[in-house]
Design brief:
The structure is a single chain. By secondary structure, the chain is of the alpha+beta class. Helix content is about 30%, strand content about 20%. The protein contains eleven helices and 16 strands. The strands form four sheets. Strands 1-2-8-3-9-15-10 form a seven-stranded mixed beta sheet, covered by helices on one side. A four-stranded antiparallel beta sheet has the order 12-13-11-14. Strands 4-7-16 form a three-stranded antiparallel beta sheet. α1 packs across α4, α6 packs across α7 and α9 crosses α11. The chain is globular and about 80 Å long. The two termini are about 25 Å apart.
Length: about 425
Amino acid sequence: MKPEFDAELETRLLRYTAIDSQSDAASPTSPSTKIQFDMLNLLVEELKEIGASDVTLTDYGTVLATIPATVTHDTPVMGLLAHVDTAPAFNATGVKPRVHRAYDGTPITFPDAPGLRLSPEDYPYLATKAGHDIITASGATLLGADDKAGVAIIMTAARHLLENPDIPHGPIRLAFTPDEEIGRGVHADLPADLGADFAFTFDGGAIGEIEHETFSADGATVQIEGVSIHPGTAKDKLVNALHLASKIVQTLPQATMTPETTDGRDGFIMITDMTGTAAHATLHFILRDFERDGLAAKGTLLQEICAAVQATEPRARITCEIAAQYRNMRYWLEDDMTPVDLAHAATREAGLTPISNPIRGGTDGSRLTEMGVPCPNIFTGMQNLHGPLEWISVQDMTAATRTCLILARRATET
């Protein structure tokens, strides 16, 4: 791989992560936040500068572009996707990315959080990256490599392909989506607008990971209407919605079905936020499982607990609404593993060992696959997502870029 890829990837990631583009699940718009346009509009300009064709910003906030084929025979249309938004789980305003050049293997500290340490003892994958150039934030924010690393990888590969038309490849469609972190990255029009036979998201973790199995996911909203009375005259009259909310949370399994107590193929129920007053409270949950029946069972459990708490206080009104988010892409990919096999072959050609583990999460590829565009997920190198300890190796990103370029060529052989 040409050495300039390291420099380009680093420059792009530093530029992209410094832009606040956090999504907001409470917003009904698409994109959910106006600040995502700062990334989207930048990508429109950069794609035009490198000579991409058909550069478009859709009315639902996705940037689309084409890398024209360099072969004359018919080949499948391959899609490459990454998302521009960062997770609402942690502060993303004022990101100050830092490069730890030729990492020496010792714990990394953070200027904006003196007590914070990123230690290879706590994170063994970091211990394998001595000598790499490691990028972190400053301790006060997340980094945003999820998924601006994927954006940088695809943009670098696109620039290289456009500047080197001697590389054989078929038509390649690019898509940079908003709102993936809140489960709204794939608009109903995207599969048709993308026009790909199959696609790949670059939104994965450790080097070599090729993922074709994800959680299935639902979201739940619990609304509690209490009875509001002045506390001085509240005896036998006040029904405190917050007390009922706490009962619901405490009645849910605490030792067996939360994210912090599960791993592997275990699913969970997680409360993500609770707001309100004594008069009214709102609770939001995410439900996760690898299987449909396990996901349904978790929704039923939450509804039954809400009903049981409702029965203790008939003067209150408790509702629990569950909405589908995405489904395990395995359900569709197992019928045709061609793109998965292609990803494994490209990873091996890049000199890596492909690793396939189920994702304890989801990607835009989950929805795209369900909607008819098979779309497994490819590694970027990003680690410790959604928090201040997030980091990535520039050299891992280079390995992902090389894999992407090999995919482009190998797709002409399918």
